[in-house]
Design brief:
Layout: H1 3-14, E1 21-28, H2 34-44, H3 63-68, E2 75-83, E3 86-94, H4 102-111, E4 114-120, H5 127-138, E5 142-148, H6 150-155, H7 161-182, E6 200-204, E7 209-211, H8 213-219, H9 223-231, H10 235-241, H11 244-255, H12 259-270, H13 278-284, E8 293-302, E9 306-315, E10 317-319, E11 323-326, E12 333-334, E13 337-342, E14 345-348, E15 351-353, E16 357-361, E17 371-373, E18 392-398, H14 404-417, E19 422-425, E20 432-436, H15 439-452, E21 457-459, E22 463-464, E23 467-470, E24 479-482, E25 489-496, H16 499-506, E26 513-514, H17 520-528, H18 534-537, E27 540-544, E28 547-551, H19 563-575, E29 587-595, H20 605-622, E30 625-639, H21 643-651, E31 656-659, E32 662-663, E33 666-674, H22 681-689, E34 694-704, H23 707-720
Parallel strand pairs: 1-3, 1-4, 4-5, 5-6, 28-29
Antiparallel strand pairs: 2-3, 6-7, 8-9, 8-17, 9-16, 10-15, 11-12, 11-17, 13-14, 13-16, 18-20, 18-21, 18-22, 19-20, 23-30, 24-25, 25-29, 26-27, 27-28, 30-33, 30-34, 31-33, 32-33
Length: 735
């Protein structure tokens, strides 16, 4: 039996003891050392040679990950670690650091209960650090902190012990400020990280050493000795005295919760079923003998087995050969194999019990975010909400028409595997449209189509996805939409939502889709917490992303019979606004009056939907429609002498420079830049600095398109979509 198989055999023995399970992710800004650390943890568990740790990149097994030297996919490994004579099962997930693959981080957080937030001792907490901390806390995942690359502070920057400790405190304070802002209610203080309580570790993943205050007491090592060992190039000796795997896994065992503890407070956050029901109680208690409840968080392709679905078991035990439902699918399916993961290796096991992470084959209906259960009518888990939205689109089609059926199947598979990738079809051109988080995200997707699926494709230039909204309102001036037969009329008012409400909608506080009548009161109360009229919002019909539909009419006969048609028309406009058929954001749409024909045959879909759709679009135009464009936070670091070229590149792309700190001989440019201006930026920055610059980006939401560019931008989009260049006026929607 090999190392990995032997480890998994021990893991299956431990998994039944729920208090000895730890599910954790490693999350950080790009290039801060996550995958090197993961290698060392796996080596420490005896599943690979210690000499290869940091070089094998066990959890970066994708060809593109190896070629580019970055983590693209969240990958897991199950290992056993002994603390004080007891074996603990550690289910570890290594997550991407690049902003384009943040969706994988969000999905990984659904599967774990604790998280090692990793920062670089030299660079500190960076933009993506904030993002991953927020992602963890949103899912009620408890963090600890590891400050990596401490050796660089000592050997490269030549800092004093006092300076080093001061740098550490700055990082710890910054992370704790994030925890104070984003931690779930009741955990703002007790989830704070601290050197003294052992929830902060320091070390070098590359040189395989780490330390915490509790481990200092255990090993007799002091900060002074650490400093001297690094300064005297004795890090190998330091690694023998304080191996990073032992230090960090001890910390996770002692400071992060077991699923037995975590599921008590996590289940109400991610599942809206009846907590007093059999399955609700079973999940709260992490009961291996209860009804099966499993959520898929990752789909990846195995050359031999096909689609592999990886997810967290919250209740019951998933077993090989049993029949299960992917909730929402048309039929039950048989689980061909159940495995535990070590990177790309799947080690088959008879079953995986509650509180653990399992890999399944045979369940073709599974997709990221789908609930697996034995009961077809089981209540699914809450949808995973991503912090970033797709901002870049490409049109794509197979070069050979004979590949079209295979091409369509491949796109479906990619969308299943990556919930942050949007796939749609341009009805006018027949082209497939891929929308992703950035250029790299789409580039990797195209690579997988061509190299992994064997389909050569034509790809358009990147297209930025804008958003439409309004700068005013039409209160007291409702817009009338008439049905084609003139027998039905709908009157619509619109007004902008506050940024606070938009952000809450984006984070999923109110859900998404039609609001059932029985849930309307509770939903209205939630909106009232954000300063909105409680009585008005209790009349809510539907939520679509960051836009809401409210029925503010009184006593309209037969209106309830058209409710679903009104919602359908509303959803149509949310997808395609009046300016350039871009998605709508940040608007409250109010139906304030209606006149309906008494005969149902005269108020069917062909009459109601166009009437409501025109009324909404006309109201948006009347309320002064505007466009919003996606922007990115940027940070560029380079030697002082190149800073002039960098600022020119940023400002010529409509970038805004917010800060330019200088430390030593390195200057930083920090600011924001429109995504539309970012294409080719990396090549231009390399040219402007002769390759000396290092930069990072992070999606930063949307800002209004400047008024002097509004018509230029909207016109270009309309031409691309085959529309008349001129934006329609109100008269377009009166008939």
């Amino acid at each position: 039996m090999g190392r990995k198989e032997d480890n998994i055999k021990r893991a299956t023995e431990v998994m039944q003891t729920r208090e000895r399970i730890r599910n954790l992710a490693i999350a950080a800004h790009i290039d801060h050392g996550k995958t090197t650390l993961s290698d060392n943890l796996i080596a420490g568990a005896g599943m690979m040679s210690e000499e290869l740790a940091g070089k094998s990149r066990v959890l970066d097994f994708d060809d593109q990950e190896s070629a580019r030297g970055i983590t693209i996919n969240a990958a897991s490994a199950s290992m056993v670690h002994n603390v004080n004579g007891h074996d603990y099962l550690i289910n570890l997930i290594d997550t991407p650091g690049h902003v384009d693959f943040g969706g994988d981080v969000t999905r990984a957080m659904r599967a774990v209960d604790g998280c090692i937030i990793l920062t670089c001792a030299v660079e500190g907490a960076m933009p993506q650090t904030e993002t991953v901390v927020r992602q963890a806390l949103k899912e009620k995942v408890k963090p600890v902190l590891f400050i990596n690359k401490v050796d660089r502070l000592i050997n490269e920057l030549q800092v004093t012990p006092e300076d080093m400790q001061e740098r550490f405190m700055v990082q710890i304070t910054k992370v704790n400020n994030l925890i104070s802002r984003f931690a779930p209610d009741g955990h703002e203080k007790d989830w704070q990280v601290s050197v003294q309580d052992g929830t902060v570790a320091f070390g070098s993943a590359y040189h395989n050493w780490g330390i915490t205050v509790p481990y200092m007491s255990k090993s007799g090592i002091s900060f002074k000795e650490i400093f001297e060992h690094c300064h005297n190039e004795q890090q190998r000796e330091l690694a023998m005295k304080a191996p990073v795997h032992e230090v960090l896994l001890d910390m996770t065992v002692e400071k992060l919760p077991s699923p037995l503890i975590a599921q008590e407070y996590r289940i109400p956050n991610i599942w809206q079923g009846e907590l007093e029901s059999e399955v609700g109680v079973s999940m709260l208690q992490c009961d291996s003998d209860g009804p099966l409840s499993l959520m898929i968080t990752k789909i990846w392709m195995d050359q031999h087995a096909g689609e592999v679905a990886v997810g967290r078991v919250y209740s019951g035990t998933i077993k090989q050969g049993e029949t299960v439902w992917a909730i929402g699918s048309a039929k039950a399916e048989r689980v061909q194999q159940v495995s535990m993961m070590v990177g790309s290796d799947r080690i088959p096991v008879p079953g995986v019990s509650a509180g653990n992470i399992a890999a399944l084959t045979g369940v073709r209906s599974a997709a990221a975010g789908v609930t697996i259960a034995r009961d077809q009518d089981a209540t699914p888990f809450e949808a995973i909400r991503h912090y970033s939205e797709p901002v870049v689109t490409v049109a794509i089609e197979p070069k050979a028409m004979k590949d079209l059926p295979k091409f369509i199947d491949a796109l479906r598979g990619l969308a299943k595997a990556d919930a942050s990738l949007e796939v749609s079809t341009n009805q006018e051109t027949g082209e497939a449209l891929l929308a992703g988080m950035g250029e790299l995200h789409l580039e990797i997707t195209v690579y997988r189509l061509e190299e992994e699926r064997g389909i050569k494709v034509n790809v358009s230039e990147p297209i930025v996805v804008y958003r439409e909204s309004i700068s005013g309102d039409n209160k007291g001036r409702p817009f009338e939409g008439k049905s084609p037969n003139r027998h039905n009329r709908f009157y619509i008012e619109v007004e902008p939502l506050t940024e606070e409400v938009v952000q809450a909608l984006r984070e999923g506080h109110f859900g998404d889709g039609p609001v059932r009548a029985k849930d309307a009161k509770e939903t209205g109360n939630k909106f009232a917490e954000f300063g909105m009229d409680k009585n008005l919002m209790r009349k809510i019909y539907a939520i679509n992303g960051t836009t809401v539909l409210v029925n503010d009419t009184k006593g309209i006969q037969n209106l309830h019979e058209t409710r679903e048609l009104i919602i359908e028309a509303f959803n149509d406009v949310c997808k395609k606004g009046p300016i350039a058929e871009e998605p709508l954001t940040g608007v409250m749409v109010k139906l304030v009056d209606a006149k309906l024909h008494e005969d149902a045959i005269h108020r069917g879909p062909a009459q109601t939907i166009p009437a409501v759709r025109n009324a909404i679009k006309g109201a948006l135009i009347r309320a002064s429609s505007v466009m919003f464009e996606p922007i990115q936070k940027i940070r560029i670091d380079a030697p002082n002498e190149w800073i002039g070229g960098i600022t020119r590149e940023v400002t010529t792309r409509r970038g805004i420079i917010e800060d330019m700190p200088v430390e030593g001989g390195v200057a930083s440019v920090i600011g924001k830049m429109p995504v539309a201006e970012s294409f080719g930026f990396s090549n231009d920055i390399r040219a402007a600095t002769q390759g000396r610059a290092v930069w990072n980006t992070e999606n930063a939401g949307y800002v209004q398109v400047p008024s002097d560019l509004f018509h230029k931008v909207s016109g270009e989009i309309r031409r691309r979509k085959g529309l008349k260049e001129e934006i329609p006026g109100e008269s377009q929607y009166t008939d």
